[in-house]
Amino acid sequence: MGFKCGIVGLPNVGKSTLFNALTQTAAAQAANYPFCTIEPNVGEVAVPEPRLDALAKIAGSKEIVPARMNFVDIAGLVEGASQGEGLGNKFLANIRETDAIIYVLRCFDNDDITHVRGKVDPVADFEVVETELMLADLDSLEKRKAGVIKKANSGDKDAKAQVALIDLALAELTEGRPARKAKVPADDMKAWQMLQLLTSKPVLFVANVDEASAATGNAYSKLVEERARIEGAGCVVFSAQIESELALLDGADRAEYLASLGLSEPGLTRLIQAGYQLLGLQTYFTAGPKEARAWTIRKGWSAPKAAGVIHGDFEKGFIRAETIAFDDYIAFGGEVGAKDNGKMRSEGKEYIVQDGDVMLFRFNV
């Protein structure tokens, strides 16, 4: 299954540089003027997963297929975007299609790169963008509400439930709080998500710092980390410029460059890990002579639902899942060794898949 994160922020904060680094392409034009990204750029990036290489080596896999995450680079928003200022409305619509929002916040000084608001203030930048998203949600709900009420008054039960959720969202938004602050009953979550509110999505803060601050952060990024804590959001300190340079290196050169900066791993790895945590994702594996592959699922999914990520028939005709924990697979040299040592389990429909499970699904259709 694909997961999509929207990269948002004011112009000239490093969004397109970050996107280019993430996807290791030059698909998004990084330039020193607003709205250089005229169309949303969607890129797929492989999820770093060292366990996959170990599995492939033991299974003798001819091919390694990592999980992937989608990133959408959305043009810089400005104050008034919810009213159509700049290129606002078009790009707000693109954000609705994402699973999570990454706020890229400028945490560096550079006189050669103009800040659209005249000064570097990452928290104020966040507030501008989030306010525009809240205003857009208010506008969307107010336009929809009359039609939904009309349906509800005619006896439509689903519409009645939707009116209650709309009112719940409006109660937060009119008080200046994002929709994600609303306390939504678990049974209503699916209907809540169908409202496609911009501010109901989980958020991740990226403090885009200068090269010298990549390992330790700086005064600006400390402010972002504190605001992320208040918002209950994740935060990654990240130098988009460094990541764009890393994208041009490989192997020993990359490791040497990271070490020289006091970094143990690329910011990309930390960003994806934070994204997985934010969205409640985990990985299971399939491994054999043909390929070793990582599959992304949500935590708490049952074996049949996890099987459905491979193919709908796997879920529909699910019989059982031959399952080996990753550590056991490695310790006993693969499927045969794990089975001989009693480490292969036959799991049924109620089994909740665990991160790192190596699975072989039995099904019949």
Write a structural description:
With 365 residues, this protein is an alpha/beta fold. Helices cover 40% and strands 19% of the residues. The protein contains 14 helices and twelve strands. The protein has helices spanning 15-23, 50-59, 88-95, 122-153, 157-173, 189-194, 219-231, 240-246, 251-260, 267-279, 303-307, 312-316, 326-331, 335-340, and strands spanning 4-8, 41-46, 63-65, 68-73, 100-107, 203-209, 234-238, 281-287, 291-298, 318-324, 345-347, 358-363. The strands form three sheets. It has a six-stranded mixed sheet, with helices on both faces. Strands 3-9-8 form a three-stranded mixed sheet. Strands 11-10-12 form a three-stranded antiparallel sheet. The longest helix has 32 residues, at 122-153. It is flat.
Quick rundown:
By secondary structure, this protein is of the alpha/beta class. Helices cover 40% and strands 19% of the residues.
Topology:
Blueprint: E1 4-8, H1 15-23, E2 41-46, H2 50-59, E3 63-65, E4 68-73, H3 88-95, E5 100-107, H4 122-153, H5 157-173, H6 189-194, E6 203-209, H7 219-231, E7 234-238, H8 240-246, H9 251-260, H10 267-279, E8 281-287, E9 291-298, H11 303-307, H12 312-316, E10 318-324, H13 326-331, H14 335-340, E11 345-347, E12 358-363
Parallel strand pairs: 1-4, 1-5, 3-9, 5-6, 6-7
Antiparallel strand pairs: 2-4, 8-9, 10-11, 10-12
Helix pairs in contact: 1-8, 4-5
